[in-house]
Amino acid sequence: ITPHPKYNMKTVCEMMANKSLGTEFDRYAAVDEFKLEVLNKTCTNFTHEYWTKLLREIDYDKAESLLSGERQRAYQRCNEFGSFKSSDSQNHPFGHSFPIKSFLDTCLEIFGENFDAESVEEKVKFTNELYGGNKINVTNVIFLQGSLDPDHELGVTKSTNPTSKAILIDGASLCSDTLSDSINDSPQLRAAREEISNFLENLLK
Asked: What is the pairing mode between strands 165-169 and 142-146?
């Protein structure tokens, strides 16, 4: 879910459960239309050709993906993290048309021959060995995860160092803790922000 005060998980779930909007497919289309309205966009281009062409572009004057950070994020996934949202698991309702292989093939298309499946696996292994994976031992660091962010499974949810803290915010999505306070914030998010403030205050004493 895109971090935006109006376009949030609660609103999306309400729309998807609202049968007056039509079939499940109609509701999904309504959610996308609402997202475009909120983000001031006119179209969602989802074709593979469009995205790979966009992500291959390195000219800042032409590259929307560079300005939005999409190419940079793609590079991190292919070169460091391997955090692809694939359909290999059986525990989701989205079919199986985007397996891990499709993402690895895309890495190769975008960044070239040094980013084949074997290379990506080696790069991810190196990243985990270099930084300690989810058992990283660092001081004075706060690790923040939202339970609705799929990437929280890859993050640190329990600190291995007594001077650091890990917070898993129940019901929160990506970067929710970085947004401005809102009357719509959940009690869990408010409590997490308070915990973050206390942690930082103690560091600065």
From this structure: parallel
Distance (Å, rounded) from C-alpha 116 to C-alpha 94? 26
Please tell me the pTM assigned to this model: 0.73
Task: Classify 127 as helix, strand or coil.
Answer: helix
Tokens, residue 98: 């985007």
Say yes or no to pLDDT of 189 above 90. yes
Q: Which two tokens stand for residue 4?
A: 């935006």
Tell me which residue of 75, 76, 77, 51 sits closest to 64, measured CA to CA. 51
**pLDDT at residue 188 greater than cutoff 60:** yes
Q: How far apart are the first and last CA of the chain?
A: 36
Whether the CB-CB separation of 153 and 174 falls below 8 Å is answered with no
**pLDDT reading at 179 higher than 70:** yes
Cα(127)–Cα(130) distance, integer angstroms? 5
